[in-house]
Amino acid sequence: MPDTAMPDVTRLKFGVGQSVPRQEDPILLQGRGRYTDDITLPGQLWAVMVRSPYAHGTITAIETEAAKAVPGVLGVYTGADLAEGGYGPMRCVLPLKNRDGSPLRNIERPALAMDKVRFVGDPVAFVVAETKSAARDGAEAVFVDIDVLPAVTEASAGAAPGAPQLYDHIPGNVVLDFHFGDSAKVAEAFGQAAHVTKLSIRNNRVVVCAMEPRSAIGEYDAETGRYTLHVGSQGVFGLRGQMANDILKVPVDKVRILTGNVGGSFGMKASAYPEYLCLLHAAKVLGRPVKWTDERTGSFLSDQHGRDHEVEAELALDAEGRALAVRLTSFANMGGYLATVAPLMGTGNFVKNVQSNYATPLIEVNTVCVVTNTSPVSAYRGAGRPEGNYFFERLLEQAAHETGRDPIALRKLNHITDAELPFTSSNGSVYDSGDFSALLEEALEKADWDGFEARKAESAKKGLLRGRGIGNFLECTAPPMKEQGEIRFEADGTVTIITGTLDYGQGHWSAFAQVLHTHLGVPFEAIRLMQGDSDLLIAGGGTGGSKSLMASGAAIVEAAQLVIEKGKLASAHMLEAAVGDIEFTRDGEGLGRFTIAGTDRSIGIMELAERIRTANNPPPDLPTDLNVRHVFGEAPQAYPNGCHIAEVEVEPETGHAEVVRYMSVNDFGVMVNPLLVAGQAHGGIVQGIGQALYERVSYSEEGQLLSGSYQDYCLPRAGDLPDFGFESHASVCKTNPLGAKGCGEAGCAGSLPAVMNALVDALSGFGISHIDMPATPETIWRAISAARA
Question: Is the overall model pTM greater than 0.85, yes or no?
Answer without folding.
Answer: yes
